Amino acid sequence: MPAIVIVGAQWGDEGKGKASDQLGTEVDYVVKFNGGNNAGHTVIVGEEKFALHLLPAGILTPGCTAVIGNGVVVDLEVLFQEKEALEARGVDTSLLRISSNAHIIPSYNKRIDGANERLLGKRKIGTTGRGIGPTYADKMNRIGIRVQDLFDPSILRQKVEGALHQKNNQLASLHSEETFDVDVVTNELLSYAERVRPMLINSSAELNKALDRGLTVVFEAGQAVMLDIDHGTYPYVTSSSTTAAGACTGSGVGPLRLDRVVGVAKAYITRVGEGPFPTELLDDAGDRLREVGGEYGTTTGRPRRCGWYDAVVARYAARINSLTDVVVTKLDVLTGLEEIPVCVAYEIDGERVEDMPENQSDMHHAAPIYEYLPGWSEDISMCRSFEELPANAQAYVLRLEELSGCRISSIGVGPERAQTIVRHTLLD
Ligand code: GDP
Ligand code: IMO
Ligand code: MG
C-alpha cells in the first residue's frame, strides 16, 4: 500500500501520532504536509514518551525518511531544538529532510500572533501563539520567507526588508509594540543556513520518485478537518489545509497517487481553543472525560474541552477527506460509564439536521440530538482482538461505524503501541 494519508477527523488531538507510529518499519517515508509546531503528537514507545511538534511521528521509526513538506511553516529554532532533543534520547534524525519551498516562521510573526489575539479581545481564536496564522498570511500575501531564501543572503535581506516594511508598521501603529531590525532578523535566519543545507530536498520530486519505486509513503496531518482553513469552523480554525487534499498541495504529490485516507477519531471528542462545539460538556461528565483521558494540550498544556462523539462531524470528515478507514482511539476512556450518548444529528432552530451546516450561525445554534448506548465496566486495555471486547463495547464501535459511514479499521484501548485492536490492516 504505497501512499497513505492520516488526517484528524475531529478538532485535533485524536491520536494521529500514535496511528502514524503504529504503521511501523514498513514505512519508507513519513511526510508532514501542513501546519507547524502548533501540533503536538504524543507517541509512547515502551517506557519512553515522545511529544513531537514540528517533526512527524515517523521520525521515531528506524530507517524511515521524515520529510517536512512545502506546505509546512517552520520555526527554525524549534526545528533544531526538537531534533537535538531527540538525538539526546538516542533517536537517529539523520534521515530528516526539509522542502526548500517550506515557509519559515520569522520571529516577528510570533509577536504578531499574540498581538492579533489581544486585538481580537473576546473574539480571539485561542491560537497556540506560535506565529502560524501570520506566516500563512504572509505566504498568501506573497511576502513570506522560504527555506531556499536562506542560501542567498542578499535576496533574504531584501525579502525581510519588504516584509518588515508592513510588519513594523502594523506592530507600531496597531499594536503599540516594539519593531524589528532588518539586519538582526536577517542574520538570525542566516545563522541556521549551514545546518539546514544537508537536509534540503525537492519534496515533490523525491516523493514521486519514491512512489514510482513502490515505496510506502505516509502523509501525517497536523490538526484536523474541523480546524481546516476552508472546511473547519471558520474563523475558529488554524490557517492551513489539514485535510487529505492538503497532503497533495503540501507535498507536491498528485491526488491520484493516494491509495488510502485514514481518519483518526476519538471515541468521544475534544477541542482546544475557541469556537463552536455542539457536544461540549460543561459539567461533571466533561470533567470526567478530561481527567480519565488526560485531556490537556501537548503543545500549550491547556485543558481540552470535552464532549460526546459527534457523528455529524464524523460523516463530514468522511466526505471532505474521502476517508477509506477510520482509526478510533481512546475507547478505554469510556469504560465505567453506564450509558454513552452519541450525537446522531443536530437540532438547529427547531429543525433536525443530519449534515454539517455551512452557515456559521447555524453551527453556533446547533444542539446535539443524542442516542444513548449501553456502557461496559470491564477493563478493555488488555484486549487485542475485537471479539475480546465486551459485547457493549463491540456494539458501541459498530454503531459508530454505521453512523459515520466508513469502516473502523483499528481501535485504541490505551496509549501504548501495543494497545490497539486491528480489524483491517492499513498496509495491504
Ligand atoms: P495527535 O495530536 O492527534 O497526535 O494526538 P495527541 O498526541 O495530541 O493526543 C492524543 C493523546 O491520547 C496522547 O496523549 C496519546 O498518548 C493518547 N492516546 C492515543 N491513543 C490512545 C488510546 O487508544 N487510549 C488512550 N487512553 N490514550 C490514547
Ligand atoms: P494536533 O496536530 C488541537 C487550534 C488552536 C486554536 C486554533 C488556531 O496536535 O492535532 P493556531 O496556533 O494553529 O493558529 O491556532 O487551532 N490548534 C489545535 N488544536 N490540536 C492541534 O494540533 C492544534 N493546532 C492548532 O488551539 O484553536
Ligand atoms: Mg495533538
Explain the overall architecture:
The chain is of the alpha/beta class and 428 residues long. It has three domains: 165 residues, 3-Layer(aba) Sandwich (Adenylosuccinate Synthetase, Chain A, domain 1); 94 residues, Adenylosuccinate Synthetase, subunit A, domain 2 (Orthogonal Bundle), CATH 1.10.300; 158 residues, Adenylosuccinate Synthetase, subunit A, domain 3 (Adenylosuccinate Synthetase, Chain A, domain 3), CATH 3.90.170.10. Helices cover 32% and strands 20% of the residues. The protein contains 13 helices and 20 strands. A ten-stranded mixed β-sheet has the order 9-7-5-2-10-1-11-15-19-20, sandwiched between helices. A hairpin with a 2-residue loop joins strand 16 and strand 17. Helix 3 crosses helix 4, helix 3 runs parallel beside helix 5 and helix 5 crosses helix 6. The chain is globular and about 65 Å long. The chain starts with a strand and ends in a 6-residue tail after the last strand. The relative contact order is 0.15. The model has no long low-confidence stretch (mean pLDDT 97). It binds guanosine-5'-diphosphate (GDP), 6-O-phosphoryl inosine monophosphate (IMO) and magnesium ion (MG). The site of 6-O-phosphoryl inosine monophosphate (IMO) has 22 residues, from helix 4.
